[in-house]
Amino acid sequence: VIVGTSDINAGANSITLTDASNNFGGAVSLANTGLFNVAITNGSGNGLLQLATVSAGQNFTATADAITLTSTVTTSISNAGAVRVTANAGLLTINAGADINSGGEVILSGDSGIVTAGNVTTANANVSFLSATTLTGNVAITTGAGAATGDILFDGEISGSIGGENLTVTASGNIQFNNTVGGTLATTQLGTFTVDCGNNFGNTITFGALASTVRAVDVKLNTNTLLATPATVATIVASDNITFSNTTFEMGHNHKLTGLGNITIASLAAANATSVTLGDVNAVGNLSVTSSSIALLARASGSILTNTGGTITDPTVDYVVGGQVFFSTAPVMVGSGGRAIFSNPTGNVDGSGTLGGFEQSLYSESITAALLTGTTGQILDLSATNVVPPPPPSNPVLNPANIIPPAMSSLASIGFLGDGDTLDSDETDDDLKTKKESDKSSAKDKKSSSDTPTTAAPVSAGSR
């Protein structure tokens, strides 16, 4: 059934349709008078609800077995109008150009998944893709750049329909991926995968435990959200083992990546990555990078948060792992700041023999998820200067604050400063010089008369 081939003004709060399939050929909008929600509920029985341009002064809600958006959906920014679209028995399809511009949150789901080529924009409000999502074109998702209130969640797998589609995700809050990114095949990998969050508010990009693989030609994490000073906690988090398959991989300056398992970069690609650029990295397991060019971003010294709630100084970019670091080629430093340090708890951090030009240290304790978790659940960064002296032939870098000087005796030897009477005396330097000469003269006299008994009084140790 075609419901209207011209614009429809919804003067009531909702439209309920009883037919199995309904095609809104014209625009669905709020009546000019009043601020109403627009809610459309389709009939049962594998029905398809197809919507052209939709606008609402407040919220827009659509529920049907399957839904296709063919044009824009807009809700009021001033009234924080939300968009909630649910295909409860089929696909939610968002065509190219069917962009969603929402004053409030956006929640999208499809029982058979989401197929999209449309962009989503909110005014610092959350965006949630609750189902597996397939890109049929380049897609940009943004929650703005204001206060840290606009999170973005991808709860299901993300993949390309033919491979090479770009995904740009920009949040004023946190960003979370709970499943595989780029599918499981080279033909479903993304093109450029760009992710940025408002880290000046301490926000994070998190890859959940099931997000074990990220397949994209180019991976850019916080490259457009540069920090003026080093982050105090991890700004990019992998909740378990993670593998990035890519041609290029890049982190933004002063950002930090922490993995609660192994971190592997570029190993799934047919050939080595062209380039990999890293800031600080921590891993409970190994850090492995396969690339013909590995650059390490130098930075200034900064404070980091500890798992007991305090802070310590982290002087330079560093790589702290529970296992080893496997770099396919020797890394190079770029930018200004101290030279990188590599550290692990065994003192044998260099798994590939490519770190000879860098300092290596023995970390003072095991690298665990507990060590990397703050008092309120933050995932932390570690400092490679938290070290203990390793066995030879390692070349440790010792934190001066951890070096305990040897114990000193309370009194120097008599032969150096004199006897106890001298140490207790208030004599001046001239007095001591005169006394020393007098003692020498007295000793000479004693020697010359050593065979002759005497009852003379002993020589004084000096005036007081």
Describe this structure in words.
There is one protein chain. The chain is mainly beta and 464 residues long. The chain has an 18-stranded parallel beta sheet that branches. It has a 15-stranded parallel beta sheet with strand order 2-5-8-11-14-17-20-23-25-27-30-33-38-41-42, with no helix packed on it. A seven-stranded parallel beta sheet has the order 3-6-9-12-15-18-21, with no helix packed on it. The model is unreliable at 1-12, 29-36, 393-428 and 443-464 (pLDDT under 50).
Biggest beta sheet summary: 18 strands, parallel
Distance between the termini: 118 Å
Strand content: 25-35%
Sum up the overall morphology in one term. elongated
Number of strands: 42
* DSSP helical segment count: 3
Structural class: mainly beta
Tell me the Rg in angstroms. Answer: 35 Å
Helical percent range? under 10%
Overall pLDDT score: 80
Low-confidence stretches at least 5 residues in length (pLDDT < 50)? 1-12, 29-36, 393-428, 443-464
Q: In terms of topology, how is this protein built?
A:
Elements (H helix, E strand, L loop, with lengths): L7 E3 L3 E3 L5 E2 L4 E3 L7 E4 L6 E4 L2 E3 L3 E5 L1 E4 L3 E3 L7 E5 L4 E3 L5 E3 L3 E5 L3 E3 L3 E3 L4 E3 L3 E3 L3 E4 L9 E3 L3 E3 L6 E5 L3 E3 L12 E8 L7 E3 L5 E9 L14 E3 L3 E4 L2 E4 L4 E4 L3 E3 L9 E4 L1 E4 L3 E3 L4 E4 L4 E4 L5 E4 L3 E4 L3 E3 L4 E3 L6 E4 L14 E4 L51 H4 L2 H5 L4 H20 L16
Parallel strand pairs: 1-4, 2-5, 3-6, 4-7, 5-8, 6-9, 7-10, 8-11, 9-12, 10-13, 11-14, 12-15, 13-16, 14-17, 15-18, 16-19, 17-20, 18-21, 19-22, 20-23, 22-24, 23-25, 24-26, 25-27, 26-28, 26-29, 27-30, 28-31, 29-32, 30-33, 31-34, 32-35, 33-38, 34-39, 35-40, 38-41, 41-42
Antiparallel strand pairs: 36-37
